[in-house]
Amino acid sequence: MSETNEIDRLPVEILLKILSNLDNDDIQRCKFICNRWNRIIMNNRIYLARMPVKSRIFISNDGELLIQLQKFAENTVYTSEIARFDTQLFRQLELRSLEISSIDDTIDDKTYDTLFNCLLESIQKYRQRQNVRTVKLVSIRITERTQSYFLSLLQSLAYTDFRIENCRFTKEVFAYILKQLSAVVTHVEWISCSTDTDPNCADQLITHLANVTKLELCQRHNNSFVVKADHISPEVVCTFLEAWINARNAPFFTFFIQQCSDNWKLIFLNECDRRKLPQCYYEFASRKNKLSHVKVRFINRSNSCEMCPIFDVPARSAGQLICYSRYFRDF
Question: Where is the F-box domain (predicted)?
Fold first, then answer.
């Protein structure tokens, strides 16, 4: 008796156990072994590896709500209106990334119901919760009328990478986002976002990230933060720096701050002196790791400030004759 026939005689449970260890390409090849294998794979597709795709939902120039599906590392794009989209496609696909962009409060309730019912059905029915790694919101206006839709969507996903740009949130959604940053999200990009009650909520965000760093929550998740804001108060920046230089497992971060005038810079330096945060050429040495420091760079032509950590080069000190790895200092 051939080896193939012996495998064919195995119970379905054993075959599924074998197939669960294969990637999507191998699964596709296994479908052609015989009709029994093809039938088992098709009946249990959502429990096996599937083709990874990224999805983008947006409003077209004609005002239609569209969904795009694209394979990773390929230019082929499938586009459909949300109202006509066949959710059974997600039976064969693994949704790795979800982006929602350019959706505001002008969309009626019926369209919102159609959109989020489609997403929630796809996530729950076709076991996509654990697959979605990245959630990106771009140019979204969330109001009290629409916040329940977005909260339901975010709560239904187990994402670890959260990216938001030019969005406006309600107080409740912003509070939920901060909670997620402490719990499961390992990377966050926050670019020019606000809330209904605070046009510049970056201060609250940085204060929260300082607490995450201070409580060593980054040790579990290896977090990283990217924040770009029009304004962050110098006192809040010092609070984060103080937490970072005292943390044993300090996270990677990049801050881009606009509107950093000479007065902002003066307040920042005075606050550093008051908190006894020593610096040399705007390099703040870690107190827990001799090879780590934070580099702060002021750009006069744009009145902006950039800062990020360097983990393998010690900070400069007063009177130092040797400049370690100066190429790292001008990022």
Answer: 4-50
Ordered structural domains, the chain, with CATH = 1-49 (1.20.1280.50), 51-198 (3.80.10)
pTM of the full structure: 0.85
Q: Which residue has the higher pLDDT, 311 or 99?
A: 99
Rounded to whole angstroms, how far apart are CA atoms 217 and 59? 38
Please, are residues 159 and 132 in contact by the beta-carbon 8 Å criterion?
Answer: yes
* 103 φ, ψ (degrees, to nearest 5): -120, 125
The helix or strand, by DSSP H or E, that contains position 168, with its residue range, turns out to be strand 168-169
Q: What is the mean pLDDT of the chain?
A: 87
Note whether 150 and 168 are within 8 A (CB): no
Average pLDDT for residues 30-56, to the nearest whole number? 90
Q: What residues form DSSP beta bridges with 140?
A: 103
Distances (CA, A) of 100 to 1, 180, 206, 260: 55, 18, 24, 32
Residue 254, pLDDT above cutoff 60: yes
Three-state SS for 127?
coil
Distance CA(306)–CA(296), nearest Å, equals 6
CA distance linking residue 63 with residue 47, whole number of Å:
37
User: Which contacts (CB < 8 Å, 24+ apart) does range 110-113 have?
Assistant: 111/65, 111/82, 112/146, 112/149
In whole angstroms, give the CA distance from residue 218 to residue 225: 11
**Span 227-237, average pLDDT:** 93
d(CA 296, CA 305): 7
- Largest Cα–Cα separation, the chain: 85
Residue 9, pLDDT above cutoff 80: no
